[in-house]
Structure formats: C-alpha cells, structure tokens
Amino acid sequence: MKVAIVQEHVDTTRGGAETSTVEMARCLAALGVDVSLLYSNVADAAPFVRDNVTYLAIPTGKGAKPLRTYRYLQGANRLCRAEHFDVVHAVTPCLCANIYQPRGGTYPETIRRTLARYAPPGRWLRSLARRLNIRQRFLLRIERRLLTRRRTVHVAAVSDYVRRQVVNGYKVPTERCRVVYNGVDFSPLSEPDASRERRNLRTALGLTDEQPLLLFVAHNYQLKGLRELLIALMKPASAGHTLVIAGRDNPRPYRALVERTSRHTSIHFVGTKTPVRSWYAAADVLVHPTWYDPCSRVVLEALCAGLPVVTTELNGAAEVMDAARHGAIIPTPNDPDALITGINEALGPTIRANCQADAPAFCDKLSMARHARELHEFYQHALVSQSPASADRTS
Q: When comparing pLDDT for 80 and 151, which is higher?
C-alpha cells in the first residue's frame, strides 16, 4: 500500500500534532506500508528517508504564511496526482485526500474553543482578529469543501470528541467517520530509574517523598489553562502543594498571579531541560485544565506512566479515563472549586495505586503502534468503500 501523509509542518518541537504525525508515519512504515510524508519547505530540498519514511519537501518560497500554505497545498495536490498514491492521508486539509485526520480538531471547533476563554469585549475583539486571519480562513474553507462536497472522503477522528465535531458540524455520515484514538510512542522509566529521578528531582525542589507535587506540561500556557490553575491554587485547600510548570512558553504574563498563588503553593517554572518522563516519575498528579484538546498527548503519556490526571471535558483524552479510578474530569477550567477538589481527590493513595496498576494496559491501549494498526485497517476499509467512485479522489 502506497500512502502519502500531507502535513504542512513536521518540526516536532512545534507541538503535539507534528510529533504525532512523525510517530504515526514511522509506525505505519513498520507495518510494511510505503509511506511518504509531504511537508512544507521554503526551498526545494532533496528527498530523504528516516525510519523507513520518505520525506518529500514541497517548496513554497518565501512570503507571508497564507501564501506559503497556499503554495504548499497546491504542490501537495500536484504531487499526489502524479504519484498515484493508494491513500492520501491529510492532516493539513487537502482536496486530493481520501482520508482526513484533523489531529488538531476541526477548524470551527478550534476557533470556538479558543474564543471561549475570553469574556466580552475581549471575545469580540479576538473574534474580529480571527476573521482577519487569512490563513485560518483559507484552511477552514478547504476543510469545509473537503468534508461537505467530497462523498468519498473518510475521517479518522483521534477521539469521539473530534468525531462529534465532524458528524455534527459538517453532517458527515457516521459510516464515513471512525474513531481511531490518538496514540503515543512512549515508554515509562524503569522502576529503578523512576525511583532515582523521583528522589533527585524532589530533593532539588526541597521536597520529601510525601509532599504533594503537581505537574503542568504545555507549550501554550493560556490555552491549556495555567491561569485558571494558578487561581485555583490560591485557595487555602491547596496549602502545602508544590507546582512544577514545564514547557517552552513565556512565564512573564503569569508572574503577578504566581506571587499571589505562592502564599499557599510553591511554584517552579522548569522549562524543557529535564525530560518530561522524569517529571512524570517525580510528580503525584498531572494537572491539565485545558480549554481545548482534541486528544492530549501529555495526558496519554501520564496515564502510561501511572500518574493520576486532572483534566477537563474539553479534552478528548478524558474519554480513556475512568475519573473515579484515574483522577478527575471537570466540566470547564474556570471553576476553581471543582479544580482544586479534583486535584485533592487525585492525590489520594487509592487513585495513585489504581493508576500504577493500570499503566501497563494503558501502554498497550494508547500506543502509537496500536494507532497505526487501526489506521491501516481503516485505510483498507475506506479503499473498499471508495472503489466504485475512486476517480473522484483526484477531481
């Protein structure tokens, strides 16, 4: 089977969707699939092979982002038609696709959830700015055309949350939309290494093994709910907790909140120097009060590492959790009482023991290898379904 994956960006430092796409391509290739990953590059570049995946650059030249995206999709369309791939798997929406996988969720839901965290009049101003975002409007139009006019396109949704976005928002028939839960290429630390990292990192923070350590991991602090977490931690019920904030985002906008929060909670911005696997071992709870996540990788990794999780219903990854067993799921980030209650419940010894017991099963259930196997099966199903009208694929 010859598969093209259309993903504009493959820089794994950018975030979860890019990292997941690269891991997914590698795992598909391990199944014997002939995988080409079509990515955007300012200049023309020679193809190269990594982990049995062929990387094909689509040259876009210099210019504004909307123009580069337009050139990328035009180039991807031309290449896909010329190479006659069996499957064109679009992560970035592309009109020649027969499989669409909106790893970041659909564009309408992304816009709605991004605006939801603002109160008027800030929400109105942000909405106006969104309307002036030419690149996003262009991709929204491509996505809408792909899902409403192309009757042979099948959708691989990374969570039921995303499936509902597609079925309810674009009226895509349910038989053309399947949940293929997101996966992670993740192995937790071995027991001796985990114990050593836990001891060393907690000692560096001045903590004993019994003092509660909360972990927040994100590269977009605002969207993932750091402000709301800091407000919740101002409550006396958080007294004695320590919070570690890992990620690349700028901490400066949060300094004033940190000063107010630190009356009850010790807070540390640690950047990305220490591998997140080590922080999973050191922490007692992952707190991810996100405003929007189609299926958060960090939550999946934490579950595989045996770490309790507190997250929101706006996260597709919450669907794999049993809240009573693995932590807490709250409706929205901006409920400080529910958030701090969920954190304190997740710190209980029973939930931690449950998570550690379930971690091996999560490692299999949430693996990227499993994700790739299910995708491969979906490809075969979609090709059979599309065969009478396969010519539409290149229309």
A: 80
Residue 268 lies inside a defined structural domain of this protein: yes
**Which residue segment(s) compose the domain that 241 sits in?**
191-365
Q: How many residues does the chain have?
A: 395
- pTM over 0.85? The answer is yes
- CA–CA dist 100, 259 (Å, integer): 45
> Does residue 94 belong to any structural domain of this protein?
yes
Question: What distances in angstroms separate CA 3 from CA 19, 156, 160, 183, 232, one per listed residue?
Answer: 18, 15, 25, 19, 47
Q: Looking up tokens 């794999």, which residue turns up?
A: 320
pLDDT of 393 over the 70 cut: no
| E-strand stretches of the chain | 2-6, 34-41, 48-50, 53-59, 87-90, 99-100, 154-157, 177-179, 213-217, 242-246, 266-271, 285-288, 309-312, 327-330
Asked whether residue 379 falls in the same domain as residue 256, the answer is no
Kindly report the CATH number assigned to the domain that includes residue 233: 3.40.50.2000
Q: What are the φ/ψ torsions at residue 246 (nearest 5 degrees)?
A: -110, 140
CA dihedral 300, 303, 305, 308 (to 10 degrees): 130
Buried b / exposed e along 48-60 (16+ C-beta atoms within 10 A): eeeeebbbbbbeb
Tell me which of 49-58, 125-134, 253-262, 302-311 is least confident: 125-134
Structure tokens at 201: 């990192």
Exposed / middle / buried, residue 66 (Cβ in 10 Å: 0-12, 13-18, 19+): middle
Q: What pLDDT shows up at residue 176? A: 95
Q: With CA atoms as reference, report the closest residue to 35 among 22, 49, 54.
A: 54
CA 51 to chain CA mean position, Å: 22
CA distance 382 to 154: 7
